[in-house]
Write a structure and sequence with these properties.
- It is a single chain.
- With 333 residues, this protein is α/β, with parallel strands linked by helices.
- It folds into two domains: 62 residues, Alpha-Beta Plaits (2-Layer Sandwich), CATH 3.30.70; 250 residues, TIM Barrel, CATH 3.20.20.
- The protein is 33% helix and 18% strand.
- An eight-stranded parallel β-barrel has the order 7-8-9-10-11-12-13-14, surrounded by five helices.
- Strand 2 and strand 3 form a beta hairpin.
- Helix 9 packs parallel to helix 10.
- The two termini are 33 Å apart.
- Bound molecules: phosphoenolpyruvate (PEP) and manganese (II) ion (MN).
């Protein structure tokens, strides 16, 4: 349930209303916008008399929220969320580009890629240290050493770093990581989500291979319900019957998620298509349909990449994509 308050409401009035709801065992979420304040109620609101709340002097209107996600719901928080990472921001008009190799392979590789993507305008550096591979015989990532190399690349370029966590037991290794990525395969690892909800750092949550948008939002809700509201959603393609592409990029997810939620939504055209030549058109389409950013795999030598070479752009190709994305953003914003 949400209560939209009248514009002249005072802080004391908000406090007394909050106290009254809390006494009834509800959790209260206040969203103070430029023009209105919204009080969101979480918990069993079935015993709350909506008409009574609406009759209060300070209340303009009351609405029941039917969706199971509350904190992630735009009705609770009408303005776009803006997530800060170091000196950069994601969402609410800030377009973020996360670029880098699928996996961190060596110091030379990650620093070379970091420098080149930064020069092209990337705002964050990605690189996997723990890789969720389909085969146990494939390269699994450099683990702790990979994170150390990402930190070196951060030192060299100033770019904040994004890297995937696969097990909660690895969390101490992520202390200096700027954004923790939850990969598609772990989107519904609820124990992991609950632990990440206790942190005060942004979480990049990728859509599961066969997950609905509601399931993605419920996973975001797990993180938010545990106290961490810094969640970035990522559409990365879903499983369909199509086989020419690795996955099928569901671009309609972008405007749909942005209608349902205030959280930033980014698109990963690399994992969505699996083909380097499709990354540019899909990146442009993502920018055109309102995404808050992109995640793109870039490798200094894609042919020799230990993981996902076929979908990785060269630094030159990435620079070309960035120039074109800027043009699209000028038109649509
Ligand atoms: C990745 O970003 O490296 C990755 C493994 O992506 P996904 O979880 O979307 O497959
Ligand atoms: Mn990859």
């Amino acid at each position: 349930m949400i209560a939209v308050l009248k514009s002249d409401v005072t802080d004391e009035q908000i406090q007394s209303l909050t106290g009254w709801f809390e006494e009834q065992g509800l959790q209260v979420h206040i969203s103070k916008g430029e023009f209105q304040t919204i009080v969101g109620l979480i918990g069993d609101t079935s015993r709350i008399d909506g008409d009574l709340v609406e009759s209060l002097d300070m209340v303009e209107s009351v609405k029941r929220i039917s969706e199971p996600f509350k904190k992630a719901n735009r009705k609770f928080h009408p303005e776009d969320s803006e997530i800060s990472v170091g000196n950069t921001k994601i969402g609410a008009g800030n377009f973020a580009v996360i670029a880098g190799p699928c996996s961190v392979e060596s110091e030379e590789q990650i620093i070379a890629v970091a420098e080149s993507v930064k020069a092209s305008g990337a705002t964050l550096l990605r690189g996997g240290a723990f890789k969720p591979r389909t085969s146990p015989y494939d390269f699994q990532g450099l683990h702790e050493e990979g994170i150390k190399l990402l930190l070196k690349a951060k030192q060299a370029t100033g770019l904040p770093i994004v890297t995937e966590i696969m097990s909660i037991t690895h969390l101490p290794l992520f202390d200096d990581v700027d954004v923790i990525q939850v990969g598609a395969r772990n989107m519904q690892n609820f124990e992991l989500l609950k632990e990440l909800g206790k942190l005060n750092k942004p979480i990049l949550l990728k859509r599961g291979l066969s997950s609905t948008l509601k399931e993605l939002l419920m996973s975001a809700e797990y993180i938010m319900a545990a106290g961490n509201e810094n969640v970035i959603l990522c559409e990365r393609g879903i499983r369909t019957f199509e086989t020419y592409t690795r996955n099928t990029l569901d671009l309609s997810a972008v405007p749909m998620l942005k209608e349902l939620s205030h959280l930033p939504v980014i698109v990963d055209p690399s994992h969505a298509t699996g083909l380097a030549r499709l990354v540019k058109p899909m990146a442009l389409a993502a920018a055109a349909c309102g995404a808050d950013g992109l995640m793109i795999e870039v490798h200094n030598n894609p042919q020799k990449a230990l993981c996902d070479g076929a979908q990785s752009l060269t630094p030159e190709q990435f620079s070309d994509v960035m120039k074109n994305v800027e043009q699209i953003l000028k038109v649509v914003r």
